[in-house]
Amino acid sequence: MAATERKQRDPIDESRMSIGEHLEELRTRLIRSLTALVVVCVACIWPAKFLLSIIARPVLIVLRKHDQPMSFLQTAPTEAFLMYVKVVVICGLLIAAPYVIYQLWSFVAVGLYKREKAWVMRLVPVSVGLFFAGVVFMYTLVLPVSLNFLVGFGAWLPMPSAQPNRLEQMLIGGRDSAAPTSQMSLAEAPAVPVLERDPESPPVGALWFNDSDRKLKLRGVEETFSLQLLRDAHHSMVTTHFKIGEYLTFVLVMTLAFGLAFQMPLIVIFLVRSGIVKLEVMRRSRKIVVLLIVFIAGMLAPPDLMSHLLLSGPMWLLFELGLVLAARKQPEPASD
């Protein structure tokens, strides 16, 4: 009787679709999503260089803090070009994400009742907002913390002394450095001015040290040349020099991981409201879900504990939020 009333209240707009029709619907949604992604990527070819500066900023800040070279490494002739293509794809994914998410939810809504289809469509803007919230959370909090640990661990390893002792000199050869016969006193040595910022109009041949940039700079005929200097008291055994392509892959994986992880409450609501999983079953399976969250976070997050907690913690909280929202009573539709 209840099933009959539900069918009368929530009629399906069209006849039941076959497997072939579902596959055709999926193909249509994929083609639309890929077409939108290609169009957006083409439009992002020029502004992608500004996105690249935004993506690179966190790692450059961390490299500067740990006295590492503030640049990226290119080891293949085509790496810089492929890197720019990756940036264009990342930019396209971020801009096309609302439309792609809409196509995904539209495919899911095909097999639902009219009432269920209506609330699924209302989830689309929420899903887009949660995706971008996950991206912002990753960029502003997780990425700096992860990079600070990864770069700082290498910088924490001290450089051992390379001066051989007597036994090592006998085994590998070599001799002690000869003392200089004459040496200029510090009072006679030329002093390089230390400035907080670059002078506005330095004369040709001027030499100064920019303390904020930690660079030694020389004014040429048409432009200024610089050399990054490292603290002499702290030399680490490992010099961090990221390959630009690998760093962008790392950021892309983190972006997708946090954007999708923040969909957790909507997934819970959809499973419960569509009747696929009972709310009581989800509550009883909370320990299993938390274990799966910890496992997924361990696969996606960087290896440090803080990054793992910053991914698994929000996923667990969003799962609990989804349970709370799914338990709310749905208003009954008005009868005809």
Question: Would you spell out the secondary-structure blueprint of this structure?
Answer:
Elements (H helix, E strand, L loop, with lengths): L1 H8 L9 H25 L4 H18 L13 H31 L4 H43 L9 H7 L21 E2 L11 E4 L4 E5 L4 E5 L15 H18 L2 H10 L5 H6 L1 H15 L4 H22 L10
Parallel strand pairs: 1-2
Antiparallel strand pairs: 2-3, 3-4
Describe the overall structure.
Strand 2 (207-210) and strand 3 (215-219) form a beta hairpin. The chain has helices spanning 2-9, 19-43, 48-65, 79-109, 114-156, 166-172, 244-261, 264-273, 279-284, 286-300, 305-326; strands spanning 194-195, 207-210, 215-219, 224-228. Helix 5 crosses helix 7 (244-261) and helix 10 runs antiparallel to helix 11 (305-326). The model is unreliable at 1-15 and 331-336 (pLDDT under 50). A 4-stranded mixed sheet has the order 1-2-3-4, with no helix packed on it. 60% of the residues lie in helices and 5% in strands. It has 336 residues and is mainly alpha-helical.
**Given the C-alpha coordinates, what overall shape results?**
elongated
Give the strand tally: 4
Low-confidence stretches: 1-15, 331-336
Count of alpha and pi helical runs:
11
Q: Roughly what fraction of the amino acids lie in strands?
A: under 5%
Feature tags:
11 helices; disordered N terminus; 4-stranded mixed sheet; disordered C terminus; 336 residues; mainly alpha
Give a brief outline of the structure.
The chain is mainly alpha-helical and 336 residues long.
